[in-house]
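Entry 14. Structure prediction run on the chain below.
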Amino acid sequence: MTDLRSIRGRAAIVTGAGGGMGAATARLFAAEGAKVALFDIDAGKLEQVAAQIAAAGGDAHSFVVDLADATAIADTVEAAIAALGGLDILVNNAGILGFCAIDDARYDAAFAQALAVMLTAQQRMIRAALPALRRSDAARIVNVASTEALGATSGNSAYAAAKAGVTGLTRALAVELGPEAITVNAICPGPIATPMTAGIADEHKEIFARRRTALRRYGAPEEVAQMTLSLCLPAASYVTGATLVVDGGLMARNA
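Output returned:
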C-alpha cells in the first residue's frame, strides 16, 4: 500500500541543486528516502551536495548541465532517468540573478539569459521528463518561480518577466496534463537566505525583512524545501495549477 505521506523509493530530479533552495530540496528528498538526480552547471558545488547526501546515507547522482543548452537538457535528463530507474518528481529550481535596467546596453542579453535559464529551460526539462513521468503513479512537477512574479522590484524586469512566465506555464500545463493525473504547481519564494542574496549586507536584510515581511525575517532554504516536498507527496494528488507563496508574509503586508 502506498504511504500517502512519503516519497520513499521515489525518483526525483532537482535543478539548481548545487546550492541554496535546490541543495536544501535535494538533501530533504534524499533524507525522506527518495533517489535524487542533482542538476547544476557548477561541478564543484554538485560534488559537495552529493557528498553531504551520501554521508547521511542518501542516494544521489550528480549531473553537470547547462540549462541554456537544449541538447544538453535532453541528453542529461535521459541519463538521469536511466541512473534513477525511472522518474516520479521534477523540481525546476535553477535560477540566476537578473538585475539590469531597461535602458542598459546589456539588457537584451540579460533578458534572453533570464528567459533561457528560468523559463525556457523549465519547459524543456518538462518535455524531456514527460515520457518517464507518464509511467509514474504519482507524477509531480514543481516549478520554482518567485514573489517577483507577483510584485516586482525596480531594475529586475528580466527576472520578473521570466518568473511570471513560470507561473503562467505552470497553470497551462496543469490544465494540459491534468487528465493524465500529472500535477504541476509553482512555488514563489520571497526573501530567502541563499547564495543569490549573500551579497546583501545582513543589516540591510534585517531592515528589509522587518519592514516588508509579516514574520520580520528572511526565510531559510530548508523552509522552501519543505513546501516543495509537500506538493510532491502522493497525498497532494488534488493540488494542481497552484502558486504557493513562501515569503514570510511579504505579499500579505500593505505596510
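Helices lie at 20-31, 43-55, 70-84, 107-133, 157-177, 202-212, 221-232.
Filed with the rest of this week's runs.
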